């Protein structure tokens, strides 16, 4: 994994992990508070419902007591119920209906001791039917809330019922009264906030809302007289349910916002991480790339930078190190040259001796002939002349080759434009030349011969690179440039010839690499070493098919 | 010509709300399809002539002098028709035929040919009433023609003797009674007038097409028709002269008002129970059951259903297919009829036909439900003269049982005009003494 990738992931982790923890914590706190609030409301609602049922039941009991007193004092009731007076029977049959409405009740029955209905308010014509289960059930419930479903003509009636009794003429009678219980009213008790109240009767509907949770339950004694068969006491349940929908919606909303925040932050983190890793990684990669090109023969990499951060410091350190390496290389090469000078001297001695030996033999032979047989001297001379010429030629070649390998470097002020003009006069025959010389070009410190050898090599390569193509031109240009290190004199030799491929360029400065027939492969090696010795830099710009430009930068001569 | 019940409300609605279920009957009321009265084997057809009418025991003459310039009446929609139009024969509250526009009637051949001699009378516009006018009025009215046909009268014509002659398909003595139907009242249609012209003692004011006042033709006080208030006792307190009602509260209040007399009208309405099967009728036909219903279950003036011409039960054709399945056994009734509700509730309380609940339905829904036999039982209010087993359309296999008869009362104030009561409870004002 690259440093840049690790940097990227680290940024992501630093940004996203705290945000995730924050989201989790907030969500958990929201849940806790919502649940607490719901619990409080549920308890309050359950209390209100119980109080309401108890209050309604007490209200029924109060009204029933008033009816009891009034009925006990009513002579027509006494006539009808005790004396069986037919004339009062009609009054009794209608009594409960009127009294029930007057008292604001929904259920009123008058029964005798056998449970026979003498008068019914909610079902006028159910008289004479026996229904002892109702007073027995209410008597067992005593003063607590009790729920009954009684018959009416059309349908059943659900009521909170209470029981009262009276004695008339020595006979006991019971009064059953009730207030209608509207399940819809219960359901309206709290329709807000996801709480719902419903009444569940035995054998009735079950909870329909699947996403609801029963949070409170109130049991109420219940008797159903509307069904066929013997009625049995049971328990109805007032159920408070909590719809999970609002809570879920709130959770979803919180989650959605946090996810949105997380997404935005993640996107910002990705961008920031990418920018930062690029900002940090790219200079390092550039340093690595430059460092990769450094070797003892190529110490001209430019590490100059304006950055003030650690990367800039590192780049400057590398530049200084490269400079020190360059100086060390010069010194090393000087030492090497001095070390090898002895070898070369011995080689030269050997080679010269080899070249001189035939000459010495020929001279000794001629001297002996001149002394012993003077008349044959011309003939012998002619005979040995080839040997002499061959040896001289060998020595000349040897001298020329050695001269190439060990150019002497002098350091004095040099006019680069003058060198270029002199070179141009001698090289006009090789290729069309064009000079673009900068006026007032500052002098450089160096050896005119070395500079000339450099330019000779470069112009020769450029002329070869034209390949004789029509319109081919070699351009030599000079200019003074100011860079971070000071003023340099830039000399460029450009051609519009075949150019070089990347592979060719990578090998161009290797010793003994050549693409020319008969070439030594030492030209550019010598050029680079000469430039290094002159304290300059070399740069090549080339493109296959378009030509090559070699740029030589030589430092301006220092005033000292 | 009698064109519509809307334009002649007193005639068309003569049977009151019971006719809301008139579709149930093949023929709503009398006249009945005739059956041979005398034996076909009789050697000579006897002569039938009009009996000498007894004194009208259905007439009521309030005490005291006439009070007020107008007679204020609340008596239902059929009341105006009885004052505006006359039939040839009038049937009193006891069912006796009495002369109407026909002075006398007779049949020389045992009831096949009848001759009705008209008394001298004129329409409001002065046109004399002739046998030809009577026939013309009937011919122009399709409803009247249908009634005559239903009564077995196949031909009506004005004789050269000025009498009206009727020919029956089969001899029968019911022809005079058939002509007592208010829908066979004698009228004369005049083009471009909304109301037909009659011969009754009252007429409609020409300026008011929807009358609230009846004007006397020959003398007497005009009759003001009042809209019934929510509580009829308010009308009594306001001095109404005649109020027809079956409301027990109003009747009880009238009994305590010395200025009013409660005149019971004929038992004109029968409440019948239609059961899906005869097996459900056991409790209803038990002795004393109907008496208890009439006494305790309903709050109007009622009696156990009776009548020589009305059998206590009748059964329709056995079902061709099984009745529709019912989830809950209920007894249906007309939502507008409190007495029907009381009866249905009592029957449900007793579990008749297995019912445990009652079901109020509006008229159309009740008709539809009864035809389909969707409910276990139905309580219907019908004219008492309806022949249930013959005329009532009941579900296949159903059983019809008469439950109770009910009647209304006329509360007549001192100083009101004298009046008499027809067989169907209709009131006719009699001329006041000068």
Summarize the structure.
Chain A has 560 residues and is an alpha+beta fold.
Which helices and strands occur, and which strands form pairs?
The complex is a heterodimer of chains A (560) and B (434).
Chain A: H1 3-72, H2 75-82, H3 86-103, E1 107-112, E2 117-120, H4 133-141, E3 147-151, E4 156-168, E5 171-180, H5 183-187, E6 195-200, E7 212-224, E8 233-243, H6 244-292, H7 310-372, H8 377-405, E9 412-414, H9 416-427, E10 433-436, E11 444-446, H10 448-466, E12 474-483, E13 486-495, H11 502-508, H12 523-533, E14 537-543, E15 547-555
Parallel strand pairs in A: 3-7, 10-12
Antiparallel strand pairs in A: 1-2, 1-5, 3-4, 4-5, 6-8, 7-8, 9-11, 12-13, 13-15, 14-15
Helix pairs in contact in A: 1-6, 2-3, 7-8, 9-10, 10-12
Chain B: H1 9-12, E1 48-49, E2 71-74, H2 79-84, E3 89-91, E4 97-99, E5 102-107, E6 113-118, H3 131-140, H4 142-150, E7 153-158, E8 164-168, H5 175-178, E9 202-203, E10 213-216, E11 223-225, H6 232-237, E12 242-245, H7 248-255, E13 260-264, E14 269-275, H8 289-297, E15 302-304, E16 313-315, E17 330-334, H9 338-349, E18 357-361, H10 363-372, E19 377-383, H11 388-391, E20 399-406, E21 409-413, E22 419-421, E23 427-429
Parallel strand pairs in B: 2-11, 2-12, 17-18, 17-19
Antiparallel strand pairs in B: 1-5, 3-4, 5-6, 6-8, 7-8, 9-10, 10-11, 12-21, 13-21, 14-19, 14-20, 15-20, 16-20, 22-23
């Amino acid at each position: 994994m690259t440093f840049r990738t690790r940097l990227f992931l680290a940024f992501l982790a630093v940004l996203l992990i705290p945000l995730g923890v924050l989201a989790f914590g907030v969500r958990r706190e929201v849940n806790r508070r919502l649940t607490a609030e719901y619990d409080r409301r549920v308890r309050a609602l359950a209390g209100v419902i119980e109080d309401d049922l108890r209050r309604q039941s007490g209200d029924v009991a109060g009204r029933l007591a008033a009816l009891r007193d009034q009925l006990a004092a009513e002579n027509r009731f006494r006539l009808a119920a005790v004396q069986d007076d037919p004339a009062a029977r009609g009054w009794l049959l209608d009594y409960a209906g009127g009294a029930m409405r007057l008292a604001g009740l929904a259920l009123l029955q008058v029964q005798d001791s056998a449970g026979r209905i003498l008068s019914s308010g909610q079902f006028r014509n159910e008289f004479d039917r026996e229904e002892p289960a109702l007073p027995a059930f209410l008597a067992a419930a005593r003063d607590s809330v009790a729920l009954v479903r009684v018959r009416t003509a059309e349908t059943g009636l659900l009521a909170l019922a209470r029981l009262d009794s009276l004695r008339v003429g020595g006979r006991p009678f019971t009064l059953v009264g009730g207030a209608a219980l509207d399940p819809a009213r219960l359901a309206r008790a709290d329709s807000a906030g996801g709480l719902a109240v419903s009444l569940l009767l035995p054998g009735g509907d079950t909870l329909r809302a699947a996403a609801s949770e029963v949070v409170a339950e109130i049991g109420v004694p219940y008797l159903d007289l509307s069904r066929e068969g013997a009625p049995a006491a049971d328990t109805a349940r007032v159920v408070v349910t909590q719809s999970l929908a609002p809570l879920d919606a709130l959770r979803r909303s919180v989650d959605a916002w946090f996810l949105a925040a997380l997404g935005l932050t993640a996107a910002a983190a990705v961008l920031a991480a990418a920018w930062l890793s690029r900002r940090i990684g790219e200079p390092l990669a550039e340093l690595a790339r430059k460092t990769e090109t450094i070797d003892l023969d190529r110490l001209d990499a430019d590490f100059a930078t304006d950055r003030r951060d650690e990367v800039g410091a590192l780049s400057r350190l590398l530049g200084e190190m490269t400079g020190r390496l360059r100086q060390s290389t010069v010194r090393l090469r000087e030492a090497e040259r001095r070390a090898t000078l002895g070898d070369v001297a011995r080689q030269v001695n050997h080679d010269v001796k080899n070249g001189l030996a035939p000459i010495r033999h020929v001279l000794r032979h001629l001297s002996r002939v001149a002394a012993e047989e003077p008349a044959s001297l011309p003939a012998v001379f002619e005979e040995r002349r080839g040997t002499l010429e061959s040896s001289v030629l060998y020595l000349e070649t040897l001298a020329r080759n050695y001269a190439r390998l060990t150019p002497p470097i002098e350091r004095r002020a040099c006019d680069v434009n003058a060198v270029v003009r002199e070179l141009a006069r001698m090289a006009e025959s090789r290729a069309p030349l064009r000079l673009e010389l900068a006026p007032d070009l500052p002098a450089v410190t160096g050896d005119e011969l070395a500079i000339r050898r450099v330019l000779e090599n470069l112009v020769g390569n450029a002329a070869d690179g034209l390949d004789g193509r029509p319109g081919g031109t070699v351009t030599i240009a000079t200019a003074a440039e100011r860079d971070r290190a000071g003023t340099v004199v830039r000399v460029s030799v450009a051609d519009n010839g075949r150019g070089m491929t990347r592979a060719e360029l990578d090998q161009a400065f290797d010793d003994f690499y050549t693409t020319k027939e008969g070439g030594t492969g030492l030209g550019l090696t010598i050029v680079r070493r000469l430039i290094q010795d002159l304290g300059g830099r070399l740069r090549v710009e080339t493109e296959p098919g378009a030509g090559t430009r070699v740029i030589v930068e030589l430092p301006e001569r220092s005033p000292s | 010509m009698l064109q519509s019940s809307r334009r002649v409300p007193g005639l068309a609605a003569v049977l009151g709300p019971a006719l809301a279920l008139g579709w149930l009957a093949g023929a709503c009321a009398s006249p009945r399809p005739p059956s041979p009265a005398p034996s076909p084997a009789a050697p000579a057809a006897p002569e039938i002539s009009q009996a000498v009418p007894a004194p009208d025991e259905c007439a009521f003459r309030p005490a005291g002098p006439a009070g007020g310039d107008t007679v204020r009446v609340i008596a239902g929609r059929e009341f105006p028709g009885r004052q505006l139009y006359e039939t040839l024969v009038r049937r009193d509250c006891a069912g006796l035929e009495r002369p109407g526009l026909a002075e006398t009637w007779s049949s020389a051949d045992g009831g096949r040919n009848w001759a009705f001699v008209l008394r001298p009378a004129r329409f409001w516009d002065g046109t004399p009433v002739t046998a030809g006018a009577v026939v013309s009025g009937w011919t122009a009215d399709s409803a009247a023609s249908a009634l005559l046909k239903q009564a077995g009268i196949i031909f009506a014509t004005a004789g050269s003797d000025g009498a009206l002659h009727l020919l029956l398909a089969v001899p029968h003595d019911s022809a005079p009674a058939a002509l007592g139907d208010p829908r066979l009242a004698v009228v004369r249609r005049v083009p471009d007038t909304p109301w037909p012209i009659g011969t009754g003692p009252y007429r409609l004011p020409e300026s008011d097409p929807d009358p609230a006042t009846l004007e006397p033709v020959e003398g007497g006080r005009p009759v003001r028709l009042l809209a019934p208030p929510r509580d009829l006792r308010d009308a009594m307190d306001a001095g109404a002269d005649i109020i027809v009602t079956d409301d027990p509260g109003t009747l009880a209040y009238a009994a305590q008002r010395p200025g009013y007399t409660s005149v019971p009208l004929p038992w004109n309405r029968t409440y019948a129970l239609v059961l899906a099967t005869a097996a459900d009728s056991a409790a209803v036909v038990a002795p004393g059951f109907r008496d208890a219903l009439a006494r305790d279950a309903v709050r109007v003036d009622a009696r156990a259903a009776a009548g020589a011409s009305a059998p206590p039960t009748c059964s329709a054709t056995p079902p061709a297919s099984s009745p529709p399945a019912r989830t809950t056994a209920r007894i249906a009734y007309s939502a507008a009829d409190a007495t029907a509700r009381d009866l249905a509730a009592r029957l449900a309380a007793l579990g008749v036909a297995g019912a445990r609940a009652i079901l109020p339905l509006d008229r159309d829904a009740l008709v539809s439900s009864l035809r389909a036999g969707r409910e276990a039982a139905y309580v219907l209010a019908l004219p008492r003269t309806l022949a249930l087993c013959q005329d009532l359309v009941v579900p296949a296999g159903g059983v019809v049982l008469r439950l109770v008869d009910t009647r209304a009362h006329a509360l007549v104030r001192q100083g009101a005009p004298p009046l008499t009561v027809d067989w169907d409870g209709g009131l006719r004002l009699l001329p006041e003494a000068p």
